[in-house]
What we know:
Distance between the termini of chain A: 38 Å
CATH architecture of chain B: Sandwich
Number of strands of chain B: 11
Structural class of chain B: mainly beta
Number of helices of chain A: 0
Order of helices and strands of chain B: EEEEEEEEEEE
Number of strands of chain A: 13
Helix content of chain A: under 10%
Largest sheet of chain B: 6 strands, mixed
Oligomer: heterodimer
Order of helices and strands of chain A: EEEEEEEEEEEEE
Amino acid sequence: SQTIHQWPATLVQPVGSPLSLECTVEGTSNPNLYWYRQAAGRGLQLLFYSIGIDQISSEVPQNLSASRPQDRQFILSSKKLLLSDSGFYLCAWSVGLRGRSTDTQYFGPGTRLTVL
Amino acid sequence: SQQGEEDPQALSIQEGENATMNCSYKTSINNLQWYRQNSGRGLVHLILIRSNEREKHSGRLRVTLDTSKKSSSLLITASRAADTASYFCATRGRSNYQLIWGAGTKLIIKP
């Protein structure tokens, strides 16, 4: 069966420090991968999605970046965190079918980031 | 504005009662999904209803879709304390990859 891992679970970082959040998926190949941010009490904002290694699309301009060094690994990074980067970050995957996506997304447990 | 807007924003009911949440959207969709999120956790997929379906059941869940009104409802029957969570609807966006999410309905089941 497929599983998705995210770490760390919680993170407190000072403003201006770098960030690296990691997400890995097991039990599937060629998944589509997603990074979302969720503000408190709000819906999900899509940050990045990837349909393959080194194929990453950004949905919103920001000081975050994403990389996919391996098929089932997705990394969210920042060189210098801002206060506004605080939030709950969720990684998700969906079955990738020849460049398209099935609709159901499967989520990791999330990372709670607090920037002070 | 964003597709997939749920109402009410919050709902508090007694255990055993039925809970109904609604979702409205603005453009044509291929399908609509409902997800549950327990506090501080990831989202869990509950059910997907396609645009050519009007009603779908899964256990205690019943989802309806009215494409003429661009709305969907999620009914949870015989609610339990474990149903306490936030519920989100999501619709397909511009690309094949992007789901558009509402802000969610926070459901509290009182024992």
